[in-house]
């Protein structure tokens, strides 16, 4: 998939999810307080108190363009969840909190991951930004009291995926890559259509696009992305038993 550099995060080219949010907002305006009252995004299923608290925290830790991306992911995750009979409240929580650690410094990401005793691949150590998903789940748990493991897993897996991940995790993985701010290339349009029909096929094809992008740039590939791709391909094409929805 070819996409202009303006859609890429300059600091994030090693993240196997190359479809980055455009710098210019796409169809979304955030009020100064960035609350649920912005009115453009479909009403959230989260409590007003929790959603406001998360958004106020994000305003202090991510740029405005990233916050707009996050809100679009939240909305698309809800829509995909409803389409596939998945709990939309869980999708809303994971979508809103998926990028909590997106702009943490590399050393902080490594320190938090090690303190949590996460198993690190050499690719993680070489590219600490890949840890923002796993560390984001730590922040969601410790800062906002999220203890639903399904939601925390969806946050953990939104970047690289994970073999055997739940349908909820698939929804957030796809929403992060395919939200409207990514653009409207033929490839993206096709992937969005696929996400409406078969989550596993859409995960497989989205991984393929990310892997092609990384290979074309001679960048490191995290083995979990390859494992996720193979797992999703097997489910989509060979009709293997689907994972338990957690």
Overall 3D shape: globular
Our estimate of the beta-strand percent is under 5%
Largest sheet: none
| Low-confidence runs of at least 5 consecutive residues | 1-43, 240-246
Mean pLDDT: 84
Could you tell me the number of beta strands? 0
Helix amount, in percent?
55-70%
Q: How does the helix and strand content classify structurally?
A: mainly alpha
SSE order and pairing:
Elements: H1 48-61, H2 64-83, H3 88-97, H4 106-115, H5 122-126, H6 132-144, H7 149-156, H8 167-178, H9 186-197, H10 199-216, H11 223-238
Helix pairs in contact: 2-3, 2-8, 3-7, 3-8, 6-7, 7-8, 8-10, 9-10, 10-11
Written description of the protein model:
The chain has eleven helices and no strands. It is mainly α and 246 residues long.
Q: Which structural traits does this protein have?
A:
single chain; 246 residues; mainly alpha; 11 helices; 56% helix; globular; disordered N terminus; disordered C terminus
In short:
The chain has 246 residues and is mainly alpha-helical. It is built from eleven helices and no strands.
């Amino acid at each position: 998939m070819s996409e202009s550099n303006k859609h890429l995060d300059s600091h994030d080219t090693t993240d196997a999810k190359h479809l980055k949010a455009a710098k210019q907002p796409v169809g979304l305006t955030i009020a100064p307080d960035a609350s649920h009252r912005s009115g453009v995004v479909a009403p959230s299923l989260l409590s007003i108190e929790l959603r406001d608290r998360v958004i106020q925290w994000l305003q202090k830790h991510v740029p405005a363009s990233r916050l707009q991306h996050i809100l679009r992911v939240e909305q698309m995750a809800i829509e995909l969840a409803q389409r596939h009979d998945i709990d939309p409240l869980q999708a809303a929580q994971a979508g809103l909190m998926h990028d909590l650690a997106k702009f943490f410094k590399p050393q902080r990401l490594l320190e938090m991951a090690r303190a949590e005793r996460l198993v690190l691949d050499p690719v993680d150590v070489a590219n600490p930004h890949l840890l923002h998903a796993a560390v984001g789940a730590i922040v969601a748990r410790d800062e906002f009291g999220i203890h639903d493991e399904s939601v925390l897993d969806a946050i953990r897996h939104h970047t690289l995926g994970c073999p055997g991940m739940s349908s909820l995790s698939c929804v957030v993985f796809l929403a992060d890559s395919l939200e409207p701010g990514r653009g409207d290339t033929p490839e993206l349009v096709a992937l969005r259509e696929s996400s409406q029909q078969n989550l596993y096929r859409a995960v497989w094809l989205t991984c393929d696009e990310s892997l092609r992008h990384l290979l074309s740039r001679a960048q490191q590939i995290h083995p979990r992305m390859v494992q996720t791709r193979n797992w999703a391909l097997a489910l989509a094409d060979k009709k293997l038993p689907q994972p338990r929805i957690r």
